[in-house]
Amino acid sequence: MQHQRFAALTLGAWIMGSLFMIFVATQNFQMADTLSTPSMHAALREMAGKLNQRFFIDWERVELVLAVAFSALAWLGIRNGLLGVISLVPLTIVAVQSFAVTPRMLSLSANLDNASAATEFARLHAMYGISEVIKLVLLFALALILLPNWRRRFSTAVQVQPVDYAHHGHIDR
User: Hey, which bits of 7-96 come out as E strands?
Assistant: First the structure.
């Protein structure tokens, strides 16, 4: 029972963190666009990009811990093979993002005035966005699998006895 609670907490933190990062990334660029004058626009967008880079690097580190923790809980604590197998996919996505895609995007971001670097950056950025959507869909699928399982185990742990109103003075109307 304890493992399901920790798994639900971990999964909830992972989902909320991912949604929050999407919000932060889009808001940083929108604020740069909204608040800037034409002369400041490029500088503010560059600053928003640098902030997003820092936030995503830090989030990916936290996300790796959450992904490993959830997968470990699914396999070793809950012992649910379906949860365990599915949890490996978003874990793999996070690992690829952290160790391959993000570092490459960071190295390319310094040379975006070069057409080939800008094209590769755009391709990686699109791939990152698509992988984020896939990861979120999988996280919600994991929640749909975990939560009914958790409720079922909770309901069997707390047995509620039905009340027989016929013997307790209940009057039917």
Answer: none
Residue ranges of E strands in 61-110: none
A 10 A CB-CB count for 75 gives 16
Counting beta carbons within 10 angstroms of the beta carbon of residue 156, is it exposed (0 to 12), middle (13 to 18) or buried (19 or more)? exposed
Q: Max Cα separation, the chain? A: 84
The pLDDT, as a whole number, for residue 148 is 73
State how far the Cα of 101 lies from the Cα of 99, in Å rounded to an integer: 6
DSSP 77: I
Residue indicated by tokens 């093979």: 81
Contact between 59 and 21 under an 8 Å Cβ cutoff? The reply is: yes
Domain ranges of the chain: 2-152
What is the rounded distance in angstroms from the CA atom of residue 2 to the CA atom of residue 84? 17
Q: Which long-range contacts (CB under 8 A, 24 or more apart) does 38-41 make?
A: none
Whether the model clears a pTM of 0.85, i.e. scores above it, the answer is no
The tens digit of pLDDT for each residue in 5-62 reads 999 999 999 999 999 999 998 898 898 888 878 888 888 988 998 999 999 999 999 9
